[in-house]
Write a structure and sequence with these properties.
By secondary structure, the protein is mainly alpha-helical. It has 9 helices and no strands.
Length: 150
């Protein structure tokens, strides 16, 4: 779990750095000029624009200097109940059998074309249907989103 969080944070810092780079160029500033505005060296600005050396303090200083606002949103992760997990596993297995896919292929397909998202979001209604009806609903959602399994 920790490596997933760190990979995601690293990707986010890369995105932040790229956004700062784009904004600096929009304003026609050099790295040196921006560095002077926020009290860091040209080398530090380069590191930040490449997603390294980014701190919340740095984000705030650069945001002010570049005339943009930064927002950090921390929200608790949603836990999924064992009932939802059981329902998804059962639906996934039936979907795989119906369309002659491995469970991994079915999972990838349903993820790509939003069938799993639909089932999880609509669990309260969907779990009251038969598994066959749930599989048909997932297939219909996937087809609406570009899926071709039939």
């Amino acid at each position: 779990m920790h490596s997933i969080i760190s990979n995601t944070m690293t990707e986010r810092f890369d995105e932040i750095g790229t956004l700062f780079l784009q904004r600096r160029k929009e304003l026609g500033l050099t790295q040196e000029q921006l560095g002077e505005k926020v009290g860091v060296t040209k080398s530090e600005i380069s590191k930040i624009e490449n997603g390294r050396a980014i701190t919340f303090s740095t984000i705030n200083k650069l945001s002010d200097a570049l005339g943009v606002s930064a927002r950090v949103e921390l929200k608790p992760t949603e836990s999924v109940s064992p009932d939802v997990i059981h329902y998804i596993v059962m639906s996934l297995g039936l979907f795989a059998r119906k369309y002659n896919l491995t469970k991994k292929e079915a999972c990838n397909y349903l993820s790509r074309f939003k069938g799993l998202d639909f089932s999880i979001r609509n669990y309260e209604a969907e779990h009251q249907l038969s598994l066959q009806e749930c599989v048909e609903d997932m297939a219909a959602i996937c087809q609406r989103n570009g899926g071709t399994v039939s």
